[in-house]
Amino acid sequence: MSMRIVYVINSIKRSGPNRVLLSMISGLKNMHYDIRVVAFFDSDSSDEVKKIESFGIKLDILGIDKRKIPTLGAKKLREYLDVCRPDVVHSHGILSDIAVIRSGFGKKSVTTIHNNMFEDYIYSFGRIKGAIYIMLHLIYLRKFSYVVCCSNNARMKLRRYIKRVECIHNGIPNISRDNRRRQHARNSLCKELGINLEDKVFLYAGNLTFGKGVLVLLEKFAKSGKSNEHLIVAGGGELLERCRNYSSKNIHIVGFQPSIQKYYQAADVYVSASLSEGFSIAIIEALQNNLLLLLSNIPAHEEVFKMDRTMYIGELFSENTFAKDKIRLAYNQKQSKKYYEKYLTDVAMMKEYSKFYQELTA
Q1: I need a labelling partner for 132 at 20 to 30 A (CA). Which of 279, 290, 334, 348 fits?
Q2: What is the mean pLDDT of residues 129-148?
């Protein structure tokens, strides 16, 4: 009989945690697990729902308002889990974590921490409210069988407060890339944005927030960018209008894009000046598309490079070295795609998670 795993998440939408969830499902497709997904409130993306259902996965929505997840959501989740009788419950996000523990299923539970909460909660909610969220989350995390961080940096910080904490890097499905389609995407996008085909294209894709350092990135690029260098910023958020103030012949603010793949296919370098990260899916996508990386020198970004120093994937920059490190990029030495295929696929990720699943049911 197959092991039954129930994945619990707030809602099905286009987000980092949902991308990881989809990759988990994909990574287990040949491992004979019985998988179900339960969300508390309706999805804002039918496309994301279809992606999950394309794997033949049963998806259930409990119909609970976000604010009521820790209370009514926990009660409804208990009723749901009592019926489906899972071997393992795997949670994603602080509200889902609270609901899983309050439902009484903490003894056979796993949760994935998708950020560095000690930084991200402060950036997102402010110093006082962020500190409250950190303390609240820690209380419930201590009751899980396994807490898994997606970066060693986050794991080391959590270990001060929680004994059973591990690290498994994120991974995404290995999709075949057609070079002709990639060239067509680059030709089309360059024509649309007025970029010469031989120019270098830098891409940032993600939330436009202070924590992601997007204004810092734009300022640095505006000061150091050459005439044959272009920066594309794709994403939405609180700083979108301020970002548009930097729009120029060489800086292209394209806003939120429902499909980001053509931008990866058209780019040469993925760039980020983020102040805090978990283990960025956007960076893994960049490596999968054989882009070089130009990343701010924070622990989570440094960790990407430390996995294998023998393979060249780009450069880290500090506060005052962006222009210099941009020049140092060795375009003819990149091994980004090989790096991804060796370390960051969905299958590699789920082989590690499967060890915890097996231990919980031993």
Answers
A1: 279
A2: 95
In terms of Cα–Cα distance, which of 33, 28, 37 is closest to 8? Answer: 37
Q: Phi, psi (5° rounding) for residue 55?
A: -90, 5
- What is the full DSSP assignment across 158-185? HTTT-SSEEE----B------HHHHHHH
pLDDT value of position 1:
63
Q: How far apart are the first and last CA of the chain?
A: 14
Interhelix angle 127-141/94-102, rounded to 10 degrees, is 40
Q: Which long-range contacts (CB under 8 A, 24 or more apart) does 115-122 make?
A: 115/154, 115/276, 115/277, 115/278, 116/151, 116/153, 116/154, 116/157, 116/276, 116/277, 116/278, 116/300, 117/154, 117/158, 118/157, 119/211, 119/275, 119/276, 120/211, 120/276, 120/278
Segment 47-66 mean pLDDT? 90
Neighbours of 249 (CB within 10 A): 10
Q: What is the pLDDT of residues 191-237, one digit of tens each?
A: 999 999 999 999 999 999 998 999 999 999 999 999 999 999 999 99
Give the CB-side neighbour count of residue 179, counting CA atoms within 13 A: 0
CA-CA distances (angstroms) from residue 273 to 212, 219, 296, 339?
6, 11, 5, 22
Could you read off the pLDDT of 162-196 as tens digits, one per residue?
988 999 999 999 877 677 888 888 999 999 999 99
- Could you give the angle at the alpha carbon of 193 between the alpha carbons of 261 and 296, nearest 5°? 60
pLDDT tens for 310-327 read 999 999 999 899 999 999
Q: Is the pLDDT of residue 46 over 80?
A: no
For residue 45, count CB atoms less than 10 angstroms from its CB and return exposed for 0-12, middle for 13-18, buried for 19 or more: middle
